[in-house]
Specification:
alpha/beta; Rossmann fold; 351 residues; six-stranded parallel β-sheet; 2 domains; 14 strands; pyruvate-formate lyase- activating enzyme
Length: 351
């Protein structure tokens, strides 16, 4: 009897990437690979990388180098690198890290088993295609979150034009899942004991636009609230330009939808937002927060903000600080602008 190959999967980055990793585990589970928790105990180590900003790139590189060292010690037979880091840097990685056995881009998740089954050759295997893959309710998946909570990815890719962002290049254009497929997966989750669902996508409020649905997220939320045994639904990664009154009413009025919005505003200065490719369409961030706060029910708000964007003046920064003091966000994350090669913002003055 042939012993099962032991695999350790390391997932870096955001919740959206975690879902991607859970799909990988699902494909591996179908083929009777044995999943272990430490790379030192594995035959094959897989790292699902992030490359959104340079800090994420550094984390990916450090993790890959650690796995290479374990392989050199004889405790690993293969190192597999997949995800955004591979999609971003492509074939040059073959030269930079020849010790890696397999490279897979973001559009090749369904090929993971076939490449692992290939006989080891002296030349590393690399597979990078157009990112078009879209998992659905029939895609295998192994949940790694606590049994009562899961992330439900409703779309893949992004069609926004933010000047600082690499995501459209790494994940492709917006591809919304069919509503029936999302409902089917939510039902599967509920049957397995999940009680809290967190909706994720690169931009959840854009969901359904590519399917001809102007308020796709709102329609989907109404259907999800009718799935038995799902007690909490949380909306993450909402774009501030698409917060409709109907969405706010659903969030405040329906007991199964958490009164919470994850709203990455990035900045408050109109000049900076325009340079970011996020110019408000008829409603400033000040007005949006006022509209949300003046509603019938209290909504907890989380946001992320960027400082140091090209062209930001002391006046812009002080306006941002005053905005934070006034808005009184419940959760806030701030990060410094990172000039990512290949983006328009990286070529702007003051980088």
């Amino acid at each position: 009897m042939v012993s099962k190959q032991r695999i350790c999967l390391i997932s870096l980055g955001c919740a959206k990437n975690l879902v991607y990793s859970e799909n990988v585990l699902g494909f591996l589970g179908q083929e009777q690979f044995l999943i272990v928790g430490k790379p030192e105990d594995a035959d094959i180590a897989i790292v699902n990388t992030c490359a959104f900003i340079q800090e994420a790139v550094k984390e990916s590189i450090d993790t890959i180098l650690e796995l290479i060292e374990i392989k050199r010690s004889g405790k690993l037979k293969k190192v597999v690198v997949m995800g955004c880091f591979v999609q971003r840097y492509g074939y040059k990685l073959l030269r930079e890290m020849p010790e890696v056995d397999v490279w897979l881009g973001t559009g090749n998740i369904d090929r993971i088993v076939s490449v692992l089954r290939k006989e080891k050759t002296q030349e590393p295997h690399i597979l990078i295609g157009r990112p078009e893959y879209l998992a659905d309710h029939e895609s295998p998946r192994v949940q790694t979150t606590p049994f009562y909570m899961a992330y439900l990815k409703i779309a893949e890719g992004c069609s926004n034009k933010c000047t600082y962002c690499t995501i459209p290049r790494l994940r492709g254009h917006l591809r919304s899942r069919a509503p029936d497929s999302i409902i089917a997966e939510a039902q599967q989750m509920a049957y397995g004991g999940v009680r809290e669902i967190n909706l994720v996508a690169q931009d959840t409020t854009m969901y359904g636009r590519d399917l001809g649905r102007e308020q796709g997220l709102e329609d989907l939320l109404e259907r999800l609230t009718r799935v038995p045994n799902i007690d909490w639904i949380r909306v993450l990664y909402a774009h501030p330009q698409r917060i409709s009154e109907r969405l706010l009413e659903l969030v405040t009025d329906d007991n199964s939808i958490c009164p919470y919005l994850d709203l990455p505003l990035q900045h408050v200065s109109g000049k900076i937002l325009e340079a970011m490719g996020r110019e408000p369409a008829g409603e400033s961030p000040w007005e949006l927060i006022e509209r949300i706060r003046s509603g019938a029910g209290a909504i907890s708000l989380r946001t992320t903000l960027m400082v140091g964007f090209p062209g930001e003046t002391e006046e812009d920064f002080h306006e941002l600080c005053e905005f934070v003091r006034t808005a009184r966000f419940d959760h806030l994350g701030a990060f410094v602008f990172s000039p990512e090669p290949g983006t328009r913002a990286a070529k702007m003055k003051n980088c």
